[in-house]
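Hi! If you just cloned this repository, the fastest way to understand the data is to look at a raw example. We've pasted two of them here, unedited. The first protein comes first, obviously.
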Amino acid sequence: MRHLLLATVISLLLGCATGAVRQTRVAPLAPYNDVKAVRVVATDPGSDMAAELVAGARVGLPRAGWRMANEGEPAYTLELYIAEAQTPVAAEATTTDEILGGLATFGGFRDAERGLLAVEATLRGPDGGATLGSSRWQAVGSPANLAGEAGLDLGQALGKAMVVQQDEWYPRRGADERLFFTPTARTVPNGAFVLSDDEALLLRAAYGVTRRLQLDLWLGGLPIPAIGGGALPLPGALVAGGGGGGALFGVFDLGVKFVALEETRTRPGIAISYDMLDVFGTAIGGGGGVGIGGGGLGGAGFVGIAGANAQFNLFTLTAGKHFNTGTQVTLGGWLMDNHAILPQSAHFTAACGGAAAGGTSSGAAMMPCTGGTDLPHLPLQFQSFFGVEQVFSNSWSAAIEVLPRYPVSNTMWTTGVRWLPSGDAPAGFVALDRVKARIDFALAWMILDANPDAGRQNATVAYFPWVGIGIYVW
């Protein structure tokens, strides 16, 4: 399984940068959604190659769904610039020259002896000033013979990217479909592939089927902190390790996420998702059972027998809004249902977290109620969440998440930073500009009640570190 995932990532890294179109970028175009046409100009209009470029682009753009602008009509402007043109050393290209030149073009390499043409395209807004996109085309061969092909490819590449960005109001960033523990109202971009690993145990793969539909697979283990049986969220549910020992859960999750309402400048985006989640594992240390509950784990919840598995249906509703200050606000909730589709072996007992033996407070630890009744399945559980992310640059952002519970002392919140290292341009076969690495470092905070038996004379704030890494190939 791991070898297959690694091979998939390598093939995506190698394949995304191949061909003459080396990179294409387009900013969100929703602010200009009344503009439906494009005009093409060359920065050196007097040359024959420039004329070939323009003619090729005027064919490529309509193939991507755009029409050429009429005189005086508001339109985007596509500027074409010949960045480099090297004439081949040999007067005529042999079959060997063509084969080697094709291989060099495929990998993005230079070959001065066989000639080279590099063309840069710039997309400008209707006012002619704002730069909204760019693309670069590079191929080995005779510049005079390649000019028409360059214009055609650039027109198609930029035209397709413009179609994708027509309904976008705010720039896309790697990993912007979720914060640390909670989702946002966005999905993985169309055709993008994600592979991530949290806490070195929890693997996730995701794929953008369309610009509004995303598929998820979670597989691995999720460590639950030993401190007071504190709780951490799975992809939707909340689970707590009983007592002071903590727990390690196996996780298998299949999910689908859909953007039901796309975000605009004035309204938030809304996304809904469903996850079929199976949780299995045993408590670690002297903990006892596994606690599962949506709210108020310290005051009420349910205990599952250690070593059993339980399957949940998780429904998520998320609303999110971006602002021009680089701030994103999210709000939503998880609904967890235990009417299992898959076979499950867990048995549940009503649990109380108020006091342990001797009258000491147990905080979030899950203590079975005396004389509690076994339950065939858990009742519906609900947990709300709230998040704020501030983007400082293309690479850095910070976020805060809050998972409110009752009593308020059982609320969990997270603080952390996200780093998205990436390259600016392709390097040979590797499309560094289309690969976004994600590195998260966050702290999950909670309040531990006073417990003299554990050496806590007063309530104290505790935290649990969370580290996540990921690769996003766009």
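Ok, and the second one:
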Amino acid sequence: MSGMKITKPDGTVVEIDKSMLKSLSPEQLTALISSLTQPVQTQVPSKPQEPATKILRTPEEIWNSGKRERVGLFLANQYAVGVVLETTDIHRDWMESLVSKNYDLYIEKSHLTQYLTRLAEMGYLKKEKIQGRGIRWTILQKLHDDYPQVPIENFHKIALEIT
């Protein structure tokens, strides 16, 4: 025998040479033949996916949601899309703009890194590890799309009065 020739139900011809057949275990050969001889599954066209409706939240709701959400709102209102920052830059700006006015908003840098990582996993930031330097974060458009833009005076009012 010089090999095997299988014609699939859709008309495609598959040839398997003798050396290939010898190298396959009986289980592999059975799986290969059964996968080649099964009828072609026709996919039923599904309904077009409707775009996800964006849930509009107020800055106050976001601020009251939790620290990660607070950091997201802060980033969206503090930096433009495409800005590249290190964790120390973000922590310094957080400290200068919020903590200097209300110490209850203090976040340790290690905790801030965790919140930034979660935001990156959600697609709001791009995380890039720089050898010997730490992590760089790039602000992505999705952050500005999902978090409301608030004039900086109103942002400080929300951040300092709600807390």
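That's it. A detail worth noticing about the second one: The chain has eight helices and five strands.
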